[in-house]
Amino acid sequence: MLLIPCPWCGERDETEFRYGGQAHVARPLDPNATGDAAWAEYLFMRDNPKGWFRERWNHAAGCRRWFNMVRHTITHEIASVYKPGDPKPELPE
Amino acid sequence: MANPALFGRRRSPLQDHDAALVRGAVAGPRGVTLKEIPHLAQITLRGDADDADFIGAVRAALGFELPLAANTVAVSGDVSALWLGPDEWLVVGAPDSETDLSIRLNGTLKGQHVLVVDVTANRTVLELSGPSGRGVLEKACGLDLRPRAFKPGQCAQTNLARTVGILELGQSGAWRIYVRNSFALYLADWLLDAMAEYAIDAAL
Question: How far is A40 from chain B (nearest CA, A)?
Answer without folding.
Answer: 35
